[in-house]
Description:
Blueprint: H1 7-33, H2 35-50, E1 65-73, E2 79-87, E3 98-102, H3 109-116, H4 118-125, E4 128-133, H5 150-170, E5 178-183, H6 185-196, E6 203-207, H7 218-225, H8 233-240, E7 248-253, H9 262-273, E8 282-288, E9 296-303, E10 306-314, E11 321-322, E12 331-332, H10 338-357
Parallel strand pairs: 3-4, 3-5, 5-6, 6-7, 7-10, 11-12
Antiparallel strand pairs: 1-2, 2-4, 8-9, 9-10
Helix pairs in contact: 1-2
Amino acid sequence: MSRRKSPLVSALFKLTRAGVRQSARIGQAATRHGVKAGGRLAAQAGRMMSAVATPAEAPGTVAGGRWHEGRWGLGPLAMRRWRLFIPVGATARKPFPLLVLLHGCAQDSAAFAATTHVATVARAKGFAVLMPEQGQDANPQRCWNWFGSEARVGLETQTLMAIIDHVVQAWPRVGGPLFALGLSAGGAMALTLALRHPERFCAVGSHSGAAPASARTPLQAGQAMRGRRSPDVDAIALRLAGRRLPPLLLIHGDLDPVVAFDNAEAAAGLWLDLLPEGLAVKETTGEIRRGSRRSVARRDWKCGRRVAVRLLRVHGMGHAWSGGAAGQAFSDPTGPDALRLAWQFFEAAMEQAAAASV
């Protein structure tokens, strides 16, 4: 009896085979139409083979801060590339907060850095940013593995936590409060990190992400993304064993055709269901407007003065980073700046945590 290939191996094989066919067509086209036409086709093939929809140049020298990069993980079979931006002014005695920013499918850290204007925002607000990068050996489309078997999801989270620990140890000046935020699969992964390591994060957020812990198979993942599956609250509560989750921020377009807005509501419901019993929760609503940019409906669930969950519904937006750079895939320049909105929430959570510890 023949052995079944894993879905990951099969997908990688198909991607490679398609790349070979595309390369052959490029050579033929270059012969017929000259080097210029062949160069354009080569660039298209490069995008396909890298699985990055709109590649960007690696972040370069920035006034008021510096980019670092490297590779780290759990050994030769679980390594990931990462980029780290540290604005000037951080010291080991007064370390900057660290935001772990996770890209979506068909992106890498360079493309996501360009989309989010991350260096500009981090420099202005005074926080460091760690951007792990998913490899094609782990997922052919560079999606973070937010669903799957316990072993698969566990390996993904442990690899990311190992990168965080390595960076903080190597650069103590980024050892302040820790946050996580991601887009799409990166958003689901950011929340998965919080569900498995809640004590490590001051607050977390998801932009256009699927509800975490809502799928184990690709079929279930597709159902979850369409809003037809919900997280297993009882199983998650058992894993948490009484540990309290960090504050949650959700940003989602209400016209998202890839990950239904229902996912944001499911994630909010999960966080609220996992609050300690007997805790009084008050819901408030409002609206955010930034000039001519898309309006945002805000819903807060508060425990006293502390916001446990904030849900921002961006009107008329699809599957894209709100306020992102023009010319990048999965980016909507007409929306309010998602990273600035997120940091506003994270900064308030940090201040509330500091006040509670006094």
